[in-house]
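Running this now, will post back.
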Amino acid sequence: MTGAFAVFRKPLVATIAVEAVVVLLAVLDVWLVVPPKAQPYSLYLSAAACLAVVVRRRFPFLAVLAAAPGFFAGWAQLASMLNLGMLATRRQLHWQTWVGAGLVFTCRFVRWPLQEFSELSWREHVLDGIYGVLVAGMPIAIGLLIGARAEISAKLAELAKSRDRERRFHADAVRAEERTRLAREMHDVVSHQITLIAMQAGALQAQAKEGPALETAQVIRQLSTRTLEELRSLVSVLRSGSGDDGPRPGIGELDHLIRTSDVPVQLTVEQLPDTLPSQVSAAAYRTVQECLTNVHKHAPGATATIRIHAASGALDIEVENARACRAGEAFPSGGHGLTGLAERARLLGGSFETSGTEDGGFRVRARYPLDRRVSSD
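Update: finished.
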């Protein structure tokens, strides 16, 4: 409670201090020029103009109107300029700003009492007109500048928020697409395995004549058939949201990918099992594909070193590239493609990390377990 009160109190104290200084300057502007035998009404009007400065933020137009008599028949020039500047800041080129400018110009151009004004020469009228334009124009110019700056700052802040939202939406779309693709791959594999179970149950049912074995075979076949229908329905729904229904490339297609990538590659493959889970094989292919694409785009001419090996029940992939050999964009620290790879690794129960190298290159490490199920998060 104390901390919240302190946070609220700091801007309030600062605002009061600024307002006190502004009012003091307006009072000094009157006090330094008022003659010894001034009329009492002129002093009262000048004091009212100084007090109007206090409400200029909340009621800028009324503050200009209240200060005008003190400027016309008194000496409150600075107070009128301050109020007019605030009016221009808040209202910009509103009709109230033009009315306020006309009042301030008139108060500076026309002298009080009017008898003295009528006795001035034309040169003095011209000089007073120039001063009137400056006294009315300068606060308006400053106010318009401050208001425009505040408006631009607000628009830039809104633009930054919009860009952040767009980046979040894009990242969410990448993750959703990766989840859909990975779920479809997993269900394709599971559907194939359940089909085999149903076939084996059918064979067992044909061989068993009677008794518990026959009943068990019938139950297994019924459950597997029902599960297969549900999985096929789910796969059809997933495929309806994506136009890519072709075969899934896996680690066996890496040679073709490397030959067509236009990137110099050093590939090392060690200790791979005879068969890999299809989702892990597809993830390995996607990892290498994305890394080679990034090298080609952001580190032109650089050589990519790819190391793939299986150890401790997981498939480890490391792709490292040197710095660019010719002009091009710097290799990013992580984009939407890498975001999708990180999401895929997480769903497979693995890990994904990126880092820079000492020579200015980039490194990607991915680890995919060979015996874990996909996360349902």
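Residues 76 and 283 are 77 Å apart (CA to CA). More later if anyone needs it.
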